[in-house]
Structure formats: C-alpha cells, structure tokens
Amino acid sequence: MSRRYSPFLLALALACGTAARAAELRPPPGASSCTGCHAQGAAMGALEGRSEAEIVAALAAFRSGERPATIMNRIARGFDADESRAIAAWFAARGSH
C-alpha cells in the first residue's frame, strides 16, 4: 500500500528541518564578538575546533584572574558560566564541520 503525503506536510517538514539547521549554525550571544580576534589566521589563534573543556577553562581562568590578560579578563567577566559553555560548545563544534 502506498502512502501519499500532502505537499503542505512535506513543505512543513522541510521548513522545520531548515529552521533547526539555521539555529544550529547561528552563534550563541557573545560568540560572534570572539571572531574578531580568534578567527582562522588571526593573531590570537582560532577557537574553532578547540575542545569545549579547553575554552570553558580558559574563560573561567580569565574571569577569575588566574590567567593573566590585557583584555580577555574583562571580556570573560561579561559571560556567566552558562554563556561560556554555550560559546565554547559552538566553537568546538565549528571545527567538526
């Protein structure tokens, strides 16, 4: 027995899949500002592809003052632990694409 799907349902499924993929590609708040200094070829080194744990630990160390910095300590204080994890996860995932 063959099933027929309505064009509306097929379009809806495609749109939902596309919207989910677009949200996955969109950086979390704060992440886009990182790329100014941490893009491929930038002076400070790329964040894409580094491990999530490494990025989270670095942000925490900058935030606490454990890791000395000229500007990252101030930038890191602008993100709480949840925001730092979201940013780190997003950059870590970028290396796998």
Automatic annotation (TrEMBL):
InterPro entries to which the protein is assigned, alphabetical: Cyt_c-like_dom, Cyt_c-like_dom_sf
Keyword Kinase listed: no
Lineage: Bacteria, Pseudomonadati, Pseudomonadota, Alphaproteobacteria, Hyphomicrobiales
Gene3D superfamilies: Cytochrome c-like domain
Protein name (database record): Cytochrome c domain-containing protein
A GO molecular function held by the record: metal ion binding
Signal peptide: 1-22
Keywords from the UniProt entry: Heme, Iron, Metal-binding, Signal
Domain annotation Cytochrome c: ranges: 17-95
